[in-house]
Design a protein that fits this description.
It contains 1 helix and 9 strands; from the N terminus they run αβββββββββ. The protein is an all-beta fold. The chain has a single domain, classed as Jelly Rolls (Sandwich). The strands form 2 sheets. Strands 2, 3, 5, 6 and 8 form a 5-stranded antiparallel sheet that branches. A 4-stranded antiparallel sheet has the order 1-9-4-7, with no helix packed on it. β5 and β6 form a beta hairpin.
Length: 136
Amino acid sequence: MTIQEALKYDDGQIDPDAYPIGTANGAWVSMADFTEAAAIVMVGLMGATATVTAKVEQAQSATGTGAKDLAGASVLIDQAAGAGDEIATVPFRAEQLDIANGYTHVRLSVATAGASVDYGAALVRGGAGRLPQTNT
């Protein structure tokens, strides 16, 4: 099996670009066949006061029904702390989703504040076929 067959990475991305202050969201994707995933944010040039917050959100459908943040699945990149030209990851497991209440989909949301930022982001899912039945 190749890495392309073992991982799903072609949905939910945010294309590389220069983003102004605001939020960009990837598409909602199903975790139904996956046990784990990671959001990957590739940050380039950051304005002098810029911050980037990347987070994973969960929902009950592909349209975002009941959308809410996935606890513990976020990262802050702060230009004042010397950030820029770096890659950050936000790994998470399917069992972190609110499975008991029907949460099956996730998306990547990236917000910039303070100044514009060059970045791109991707959501990579893996562990196909071993979804937990409930979360503990």
